[in-house]
Amino acid sequence: MKLEKEINELDLLRYIHNELSGKECLEVEEWINSSEGNRKLAEDFYYLSFAVSSMQLIQRSAPQKALDKVNKRIQSKRPSRLFFYFQRVAAVLLLPLLLLSIHLISKPKAEQPVSYLEARMTPGMIGSLVLSDGTKVWLNSSSLLRYPNTFSEHVREVELDGEAYFEVVENKQSPFIVKTGDASVKVLGTKFNIDAYKSNGFIAATLVEGAIEFNYKNKHTNNQTIEMRPNDRVQYDKNTSKAQKHATYIPKDIAWKNGQIILKDTPLPDILWILSKRFHIDFVVKDPSFYKYSFTGVFTNQQIERVLDHFERSSGIRYKIDHQFNEDGEIMKSQIELY
Q1: Is residue 194 within 8 Å of 162, Cβ to Cβ?
Q2: pLDDT reading at 288 higher than 50
Q3: Chain-centre distance of CA 110, in angstroms?
Q4: For a Cys staple, 156 with which of 47, 127, 151, 299, CB 3.0–4.6 Å?
Q5: Alpha carbon distance 308, 336 (integer Å)
Q6: How far is CA 133 from the centre of its chain?
Q7: pLDDT tens profile 83-98
Q8: Per-residue pLDDT tens for 291-308?
Q9: What is the largest distance, in Å, between two alpha-carbon atoms of the chain?
Q10: Confidence (pTM)
């Protein structure tokens, strides 16, 4: 049977949290059961979502109270064979988390150590979490966020490898700092996006609301600070140690967190970077003249072929897709040749 709707990670997240209608639930379950690859992807996504949310419950509650909340959440799910399976796995995940919390909570408050947690997105997946201060974070594909289980009174500091969108809860006594290795962003309470994959040659920050400080070292290793205002984008070049600030089109920079790709006279090199993150794909451009092209369009929850078809119709750029498979026949990596 051909599925009418292509399921994405936002649909899976809403399914896990019981936010879909009856028809939408059936569509998701049909998609999950349509292939072993889809089922494994859904399981991985569920494990990550459950582990993160359960840990947050444990951090804020006594162990028994946390367990009661988690059990209540599990029992409130729409019953299905798929969820009965997930619940068994969730119980296995929850046990070590509860044992850890009992160990930490049993110590006097002054002696409780600060432990660090990691949230990691698999290639092609998008997810979100809430930090202990209430700050909301969305993580793009292949991103890693390292953060403490609880923040200190004087500073809130996290480390990022990848791309994330932050909605930071305001606290003037405790600045929020995002470290990326080559640069950092300091805020008190605001909304912003930061693109900081270690494997890439730049770090970029886009400010949506409020004000932030973008800090970096110049080629003489001197500390530099750029004050940012809404609609500002700062891009730091790791090779030259230079940073530039310019106005940007915010919807384009943060569209990824809603499963969208928004282009507005966007140069091809920028588009290929957006697509490589979203779909975990490498590109090979056969004709260097293609780099002078720019494109405009909006793509919502669409497959890579739809985007490339748009390029082909508007510019004549053709494409060829090659997949790399593992021993189980699953796609590990894809490469697209533009010619």
Answers
A1: no
A2: yes
A3: 34
A4: 151
A5: 10
A6: 19
A7: 444 444 444 444 444 4
A8: 999 999 999 888 888 889
A9: 68
A10: 0.67
